[in-house]
Amino acid sequence: MPLQTRGSTALDKAQRRLALFKSIHEHLDLGHGLTNAAYSRQIEITRAALEAHNTLLSNLDESRKTLAQLDAALSELSERMLSGVASIYGRSSIEYAKAGGSRRKSSRAIPTSVQTTFAPQSTQATTPTESTSTNGNSKATSMS
């Protein structure tokens, strides 16, 4: 998105007002430095600063576009370089990992933290006299 150049309502208003002051008198002098010439100089200084500002914005916009193009070209070259390493050494090689690629695993083993061990179930049955039940209460009751 291009940067928005700006205008100046104060500059536009001053130019119109200068024309009105000149209609009163070409060399109007109100004293204390308030003259058409001083007013005109300030208008020109402001106009030059505004033009310089807008020129800088235009150059900045051009620079931003150039940088975006260079960034995209570098990103594409990086991908091509990594693909070249993959085609020569393979995607599961150490060289591919050194170049920044993710090595492929040769087998899909389940991580040890996910594996569960199953204990064989006891074949002994508990007798009702040995077990206790809370029957939904907090107090344990004997089933005998």
Instruction: Name the shape in a single word.
Output: elongated
Continuous helix count: 3
- How many strands? 2
Distance separating the two termini: 83 Å
Structural class, please? mainly alpha
Oligomeric form: single chain
What's the overall average pLDDT, rounded?
83
Q: Measured on Cα atoms, how large is the radius of gyration? A: 42 Å
Please estimate the helix content. 40-55%
Give, in spatial order, the strands making up the sheet with the most strands. 1-2
Which segments are poorly predicted (pLDDT under 50) over 5 or more consecutive residues? none
Can you characterise this structure?
Helix 1 packs antiparallel against helix 2. The mean pLDDT is 83. With 144 residues, the chain is mainly alpha-helical. The protein has helices at residues 9-24, 36-89, 94-98; strands at 132-133, 141-142. It contains 3 helices and 2 strands, in the order H-H-H-E-E. The two termini are 83 Å apart. It is elongated and about 110 Å long. The protein has a two-stranded antiparallel sheet with strand order 1-2. The longest helix has 54 residues, at 36-89.
